[in-house]
Amino acid sequence: MNRRHLLASAPALALPLLLPAGVLAQGAFPNRPIRIVSPFSAGGTSDGVVRLLSPTLERVLGQPVVLDNRPGAGGTVGTAHIAAERPDGYSLVLANAGPMAIAQTLFPTLPYDVRRSFSYVMLVGGAPMVVGVRPNSPIRNMADYLAAARARPEAISYGSAGIGSVGHLAGMLWASETGTQLLHVPFRGGGEAEQQVLGGSLESLWNTLGAHAGSVRGGTLRALAITSGERMSTFPDVPTIVEAGFPGATAINWFVLAGPVGLPEGVVTRVREAFTIAINEPGMKDRIAGLGVLPMSDSGPADVQAFVNREVARWAPIVRSSGATPS
User: In order of start, what are the domains of the chain with their CATH numbers?
Assistant: First the structure.
């Protein structure tokens, strides 16, 4: 993760409110509802972000914003759907690191290539993983976790939201950095993993913080660390993986807004401006942080493309060493 993309606030997202002449020349965009695909089941983090931003997006764009859940194959089904749509700006995807970086190595064949199949609009935010244990666990911090992993190779189990998920690979990344061996147990979602941790049949979990925010706040899940380089204002007592002494184990499940390759520059600018205004609404960043999402910034679509390319390269060796295969 390139830390310059993670900010405590997002003034760098601010864009001029005056549209360039090229956008005005198009005139009609948008003149009908805009559909944003979430390539995961309803109720996830990307859903939450779209729902928070939609009222402002609709006001700025003057058209309804429709959320369309298209889950399947680790987010690749919905992402592939958008890659095959017309590049007119009316069909977009808010995808995360799974289908946009990890899948490029995880799946032997994909109906899209993240380096050539999309027009990137902007980085919207990033969700760190949480390392969680049950409240009465003797493991109270990451130093204890490391000691336990070293004392009992492959006896310390961790759950994630599935094979090839960011949580799965974040645990692998940490184990690689520390020279330890954890036992990965995949689930169909973070909720199932949490139930097994709380029930005592699983030692720990590595999964997106937002999926366990209520449990962490309520004290039913002990958060040992989050995998970002900075603390979250909404979880000020949870240390970062960097503070715990593992700077190489940062892992952010970032969210990127994209459309099919070939989106007109003016359309990209118009959508980017609308999202920027929505994110910078008073109090919005705090509401997004409540979902476990940190603001991110970029300097434009080309910077987003370069970021995605770096993330593909970063995760590729971790995917290969994990032995993960599509389920």
Answer: 3-127+252-322 (3.40.190.150), 128-249 (3.40.190.10)
